[in-house]
Amino acid sequence: MLAHGWQVALTGLFSATTAYCFWRLATARSQGIEAVVDVNHILMGPAMLLMVWWPSATGAKWVQLAVFAGMAVVFARHLTGLVTVTGRTGALLHAGMNLGMVWMLLAMPTLMTADPAMAMDMPGHQHFSELAGTRIWAAMGSWVAVGLMILAAAWWISRVLRAPGHRVLCACHALAFCGMAAMLGLMTPAL
Q1: Which helix (H) or strand (E) holds 109?
Q2: What is the mean predicted confidence (pLDDT) over 6-22?
Q3: Which residues contact 176 (CB under 8 A, 6 or more apart)?
Q4: What mean pLDDT comes out for the span 13-40?
Q5: Alpha-carbon distance 68 to 148, whole Å?
Q6: What are phi and psi of 113, to 5 degrees?
């Protein structure tokens, strides 16, 4: 479970990004793949809030896995039709963001199990040491994902500085990546 301060901060962050994308969609400010990006953020915000406040909730896990894996495929397929580096990078990063959601959903139960050091000290319990080994691999994969999300956030921040007409939108994407990196980092044990 996250500390209350982090819960409040992440709730504000994901509520803001969701509300902004909902506003963009409702006012027809986005079309084509941009509308898909907005829908993606609208779906991802509540999913992240569910993880923030009820990390052990598994009721809609498989639906979320299907939705976010499907969205990753949509963005990956959209790469072929783009001609600009900026467009391709944005689509690639959104595909990665969705794969990050899939990773978080799959890794969270493993990451939130008993302390691996404590499990290693329990004599005669082989399954505890196997669990500890699995948890270490999950933690390593999670820290790699955190690093990638931080790099993606940095790219969006650079777009805030270089794309005057899209600063708020790029800031929204940067915030979403920062929030995901923070959430995954907070639930991942140190190596």
Answers
A1: helix 85-111
A2: 96
A3: 13, 14, 17, 41, 44, 97
A4: 94
A5: 17
A6: -85, -175
Average pLDDT value for residue range 20-24: 96
* pLDDT, tens only, 96-105: 999 999 999 9
What tokens appear for 129 in the block? 């040491």
Q: Under a CB-based contact definition with an 8 Å cutoff, are residues 38 and 21 in contact?
A: yes
pTM over 0.85? The answer is yes
Q: How far apart are CA 182 and CA 17, in angstroms?
A: 15
For 5-30, what is the mean pLDDT? 95
Cα–Cα distance for residue pair 98/2, rounded to 1 Å = 22
Which is nearest to 144 in space by CA: 88, 98, 100, 93?
100
Provide CB contacts within 8 A for 123, sequence distance 6+.
none
- What do you get for the CA distance between the two ends of the chain, in Å? 19
Give which of 82, 191, 96, 70 is closest to 149, Cα–Cα: 96
Mean pLDDT of the chain: 87
Is the pLDDT at 120 greater than 70, yes or no? no
C-alpha dist (Å) from residue 130 to 60, 98, 133: 28, 29, 5
Are the C-beta atoms of residues 41 and 30 closer than 8 Å to each other?
Answer: no
Measure the CA–CA gap between 155 and 42, rounded to whole angstroms.
21
**Cα–Cα distance for residue pair 82/174, rounded to 1 Å:** 21
